[in-house]
């Protein structure tokens, strides 16, 4: 499943045409659903795999920031 959809890019085009605080505040729920959450999902699924070398990695989110924890299930020592 793609992280970013056509709706994401449509939203970004609308944002470019309406780059002001009142428009953004009125459309913030769309930003959260179409941009922020998919971006965080991408980071959790793709970037963590690169950092941890893929396979058996886990992530935990703490107070809005992402903490990466690499776990190698075949070896009790962290990667």
Give a written overview of the molecule.
By secondary structure, the chain is of the alpha+beta class. Helices cover 54% and strands 15% of the residues. It has helices at residues 6-17, 21-26, 28-52, and strands at residues 57-62, 65-70. Strands 1-2 form a two-stranded antiparallel ribbon. A hairpin with a 2-residue loop joins strand 1 and strand 2 (65-70). Helix 1 (6-17) crosses helix 3 (28-52). The longest helix has 25 residues, at 28-52. The protein is elongated and about 40 Å long. The two termini are 28 Å apart.
Topology:
Layout: H1 6-17, H2 21-26, H3 28-52, E1 57-62, E2 65-70
Antiparallel strand pairs: 1-2
Helix pairs in contact: 1-3
Give the key terms.
79 residues, two-stranded antiparallel sheet, alpha+beta
Q: Tell the overall outline.
A: elongated
Distance between the termini: 28 Å
Query: In sequence order, what are the helices and strands, one letter per element?
Result: HHHEE
Low-confidence stretches: 55-59
Mean pLDDT across the residues is 76
Query: Helix/strand-derived class?
Result: alpha+beta
For the largest beta sheet, what order do the strands appear in spatially?
Answer: 1-2
How much β-strand is present in the residues?
15-25%
Number of helices: 3
How many strands appear in the DSSP assignment? 2
Radius of gyration: 17 Å
Largest sheet geometry: 2 strands, antiparallel
Helical fraction: 40-55%
